[in-house]
Amino acid sequence: MNAAIDLDADALIKVERLSAHFPVKSGFFGRPSAWIRAVDEVSLAIRKRETLGLVGESGCGKSTLGRTILALRRANGGSVHFEEKSVLDLPPEDLKALRRHMQLVFQDPFASLNPRETVGRAVRTALDLHKIGTARERTDAVSEIFRQVGLHPALMDRFPHEFSGGQRQRVGIARAIVLRPKFLVCDEPVSALDVSIQAQILNLLKDLQQQLGLTYLFISHNLAIVEHMADRVAVMYYGRIVEIARRDELYARPRHPYTKALFAAVPIPNPRQRTLDIQMRGDPPDPTRMPSGCRFRNRCPYAMDRCAQEEPALIEMAPDHRVACWLDS
Questions:
Q1: CB neighbour burial string for 192-227, b if at least 16 within 10 angstroms, e if fewer
Q2: N or C: which end of the chain has fewer CB within 10 A?
């Protein structure tokens, strides 16, 4: 089980056996006929001032995990602790106060902004809700944040449609950091941007992390971007973490067959460069009826009888490198 992971004593975020399930409704009364276990007893720790990359196929539960950690989605079980405070058990007023320290950068920088609201007002709203400073101090704070993300304060009175995609994402980042949080969930923050702009936003996030001492959960399906951004990387497969390790270790020596298959699927420009010789078999599983035992076994070229009988736990195979696979046990 994923709960076997060792949680760091000095971690900023501690997630233990976290679950988030969604009903599949059918019939006239819309009663649940099945459940999708988008996050299924996940345990992990995010250390202070680090970037934990979270990778996996589309639909594997990455975004749901990020939002459940922030208590933006209801958890069906488990716990999340931020600086030893239980996030999921807080009453509304205390959770509102805690949100100052935990923020989200959205994937789509246009859909996440109100088209009828100026970008300055969008960034300032959080300061107004938390009643931080005087009216003048809030305006000055928004101006300073605009400068910090590379936008001129004169643009504060413009509307989202007047900006490029990269500029809108800078506004989204400004809105996320205006309260000076400690933790950001970056949910595919550059996937909606042109390739030419992606590097600018990634470098901005790195600079802000250094300046503000931020901790990131960086969600992406792009392995090259995660390699550039992350200190450690967790690999997710249909609700479970199957491998987690330091970035350099994972990219040099991936151990789980699913991780190897993800790397093998990435095109390499140099035809002479050696690639991993592994391919996933078949189609992704039905999320309402996961296979018994290891949920990757129906697509794994190394599957054996034990894989169908027991689900492997995350076991440390090397220093700070944990894998959930019977092949390595």
A1: bbeeebbeebbebbeebbeeeebbbbbbbbbbebbe
A2: C
